[in-house]
Amino acid sequence: MSEQLRERGRPRQFDPETALDLAMPLFRERGYHGASISELSEAMQLTAGSIYKAFHDKRGLFLQVFARYTSLRNQALRERLAAHRDGREKIAELLCFYLESASGIEGLRGCLVVSGAIELQQLDAELSALVKEALKRNQRLLVQLIEQGQQDGSINAQHDAEALSGVLFCLVQGMRVAGKSGEIPASDRLIVTALRLLD
């Protein structure tokens, strides 16, 4: 019996990145407040004690999951954009990236940034600030791509880059919200229609 108790109390060894990746879908599907420690424990295949020892509390776990989520997403998007030459092509690829992210199981799981913007706005100043910075980073990227397109001639130089980036920003964030509900209207024509804004 004493041997069993020692075994039960022994901390489990695990890879932190793997643990974060296992927690990520649950936070995306349920939100910060909706994901319980018992559910996270099951998803991560760790005891609650191991989670608390490694991440201190659910908030600490969410902070690391959020950082990894945004890092992986940003890296994947950068790699896709790097394969295209001009600003218009890069914006088209960005819209494809968001549309794919908002479709199927990925869409139903949802976006940690969008859900965080809705859920954490009034509840946690530090988490809310991280979400706001991620959103600002997304909009700054859109401005940069529009300005690049205006310089290389693929986007109409008469457009107000800030205003146009705002329209596209609302579009891509709206895709994630619509994807969470399981349906994006006219998804097969959405990107072609959106690109006309650049003419």
What does this structure look like?
This protein is an all-alpha fold. The chain folds into 2 domains: 1-68, Arc Repressor Mutant, subunit A; 84-199, Orthogonal Bundle (Tetracycline Repressor, domain 2), CATH 1.10.357. Helices cover 77% and strands 0% of the residues. The protein contains 11 helices and no strands. The protein has helices at residues 2-9, 16-34, 37-44, 48-55, 58-81, 87-101, 104-109, 112-119, 125-152, 161-181, 187-195. Helix 2 crosses helix 5 (58-81), helix 2 (16-34) packs parallel to helix 8 and helix 4 crosses helix 5. The model is unreliable at 1-11 (pLDDT under 50).
What key phrases describe this protein's structure?
single chain, 199 residues, mainly alpha, Arc Repressor Mutant, subunit A, Tetracycline Repressor, domain 2, 2 domains, 11 helices, 77% helix, elongated, disordered N terminus
